[in-house]
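Postdoc handover notes: sequence design on the structure in folder B. Input tokens:
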């Protein structure tokens, strides 16, 4: 199985946080309930940003920064 890409629009939040656990702090900083949520296996970054009214590009940059990919 190929290594997931953090920018994959179909990557679930559960898989994102499992592969890059350092991104959990970004979700917590934004007071998002995604960490440990039963919907995390089905939601993507796009879904979460829509739900929490966040700018997706800015949020993705924070995730990339936390994962040390920028």
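Designed sequence:
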């Amino acid at each position: 199985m190929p290594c997931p890409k953090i920018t994959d629009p179909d990557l679930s939040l559960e898989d994102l946080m499992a592969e890059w656990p350092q991104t959990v702090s970004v979700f917590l900083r934004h007071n998002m309930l995604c960490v440990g949520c039963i919907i995390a296996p089905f939601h993507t970054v796009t879904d979460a940003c829509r739900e929490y009214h966040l700018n997706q590009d800015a949020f993705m940059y924070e995730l990339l920064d936390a994962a040390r990919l920028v």
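Context for whoever picks this up: Residues 45 and 60 are 8 Å apart (CA to CA). Don't rerun without checking with the PI first.
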